[in-house]
Amino acid sequence: MLVGINEIKTGLNIEMDGAVYCVVGYENVKPGKGSAFVRTKLKNIKTGAVLERTFRNEKIETADIDKRTFQYLYTAGDIFEFMDHDTYEQMPLHRDQVGGAVDYLKENIEMTALIHKGQVLTLEPPIFIDLKIVETEPGIRGDTSKSGNKPAKTETGLVVSVPLFVTEGTVVRIDTRTKQYVGRA
Q1: What is the pLDDT of residues 108-129, one digit of tens each?
Q2: How far apart are alpha carbons 26 and 9 in whole angstroms?
Q3: Mean pLDDT, to the nearest integer, of 9-32?
Q4: Do residue 120 and residue 152 come from a single domain?
Q5: Pick from 111, 149, 113, 107: nearest CA to 132
Q6: What is the pLDDT of residue 138?
Q7: What is the pTM of this model?
Q8: What pLDDT is attached to residue 69?
Q9: Same structural domain for residues 162 and 179?
Q10: What is the mean pLDDT of residues 55-76?
Q11: 101 Cβ contact list (under 8 Å, min separation 6)
Q12: Residue 97: predicted pLDDT
């Protein structure tokens, strides 16, 4: 579907130069001379790259993005098997399609898949996820010279900075947007 520049809003998905973008910011500009235009910030849904683009008197192709819930099943090499909750079909995805969500993959976790024209563009993990700490150095009582944080490796291989009191075997809550420790689960 084609839309005019007056219909550009934050959150609109558009198709441009063979890629799908989401509008993350826009500004309507009406100069004293000449015609009005829209200055936008666009985020590539697949790669996450942000670019700025100005639209004048033109029509823009919108992209129909379908959101589905996928459940992670298992990994076989570079192929990750997911199950579509709507159709119960197994969907094999390559490591490139999974992207940064690979840091949060543990058995039976549910993720939101963004699908365009039958192709999975990206996977979005839940905002908060509980992961078990499998490797960290022990915190020494009274040692506050290192600002109270230490690195810890989770069950999925993600390394996060945690407080000194967190030990191996502790289940912690991680914010997937920032990859930071939030608290104990």
Answers
A1: 899 998 888 888 888 889 999 9
A2: 7
A3: 90
A4: no
A5: 107
A6: 81
A7: 0.74
A8: 92
A9: yes
A10: 90
A11: 111, 122, 123, 124, 125
A12: 81
- Identity of the residue numbered 168: E
Q: Are residues 139 and 115 in the same domain?
A: no
Report d(CA 97, CA 116) in Å as an integer: 13
CB 19 within 8 A of CB 13: no
Q: Which of the listed residues 14, 34, 61 is the one where a domain comes to its end?
A: 61
**Can you tell me which residue has the tokens 């939101």?**
112
> φ and ψ at 165, to 5 degrees?
-75, -10
| pLDDT score of 105 more than 60 | yes
What whole-number percentage of the chain has pLDDT above 70? 95
Tell me the residue range of the domain where 19 lies.
2-61
3-state SS assignment for residue 45: coil
Q: Is 132 exposed, middle or buried (0-12, 13-18, 19+ CB in 10 A)?
A: middle
Residue closest to 135 by CA, chosen among 103, 168, 180, 95 = 168
Among candidate residues 48, 40, 41, the one with its CA nearest the CA of residue 19: 48
Query: Do 117 and 132 sit in the same domain of this protein?
Result: no
pLDDT of 102 strictly over 60: yes
| Tokens at 122, concatenated | 């990206």
DSSP state of 98: H
How many separate domains does the chain show? 3
Report the CATH number that the domain containing residue 166 is assigned in CATH.
2.40.50.140
Domain end marker among 100, 124, 148:
124
- Tell me: pLDDT of 36 over 90: no
46 and 15 assigned to the same domain: yes
Q: Are residues 43 and 70 in the same domain?
A: no
